[in-house]
Write a structure and sequence with these properties.
Blueprint lengths: L2 H28 L4 H13 L2 E2 H8 L3 H13 L3 E5 L7 E5 L1 H24 L3 H27 L1
Antiparallel strand pairs: 1-3, 2-3
Length: 151
């Protein structure tokens, strides 16, 4: 494969990541959150309820930092804490999906529409290639994250 083409794709991938961070920071500010809080809230939406310890493991944050994160979300009525029925020492974090969606759907509406139109402009075969790239790139990022976290 052409090395220049590989460099171009790598550069585009980096630019995509940087631009994504900037956009998500802007969305977070409009929602009165920090960029990282916004993304961690996304973990809760994606994964559903979990313990504070599970959220700590998922994010790489200390348990103290997770407590502060949950405090901030709870003040905005975006999550609710409850004790696990089988072990009251465990705190379950439940996302308030309705409130979260009410907050974010308007901020992402135009972006989502434009993205869907962009995807629709590609052939089915091209979409499969894009999907394969993202799936494999995510695997590589997860492997790298796991390697760095285990050292």
């Amino acid at each position: 494969m052409d090395n220049d083409l590989i460099k171009t794709i790598r550069k585009q991938s980096q630019l995509y990541a940087y631009t994504s961070i900037q956009m998500h920071e802007a969305v977070a500010r409009k929602a009165s959150l920090s960029g990282t809080d916004h993304k961690y809230l996304g973990f809760l939406i994606e994964k559903g309820q979990m313990t504070a310890g599970e959220l700590s493991s998922l994010t790489g944050l200390t348990t103290g930092a997770v407590t502060g994160l949950i405090d901030r979300f709870e003040k905005k009525n975006l999550v609710k804490r409850r004790f696990a029925e089988d072990d009251r020492r465990k705190v379950i974090i439940e996302p308030n999906t309705e409130n979260i969606m009410t907050l974010f759907v308007p901020l992402y509406k135009e972006f989502r529409n434009k993205t869907e139109n962009l995807i629709a402009s590609f052939s089915e075969e091209e979409i499969r290639v894009i999907d394969a790239y993202f799936s494999k790139a995510i695997e590589i990022m997860n492997e790298t994250t796991n390697d760095l976290n285990s050292k």
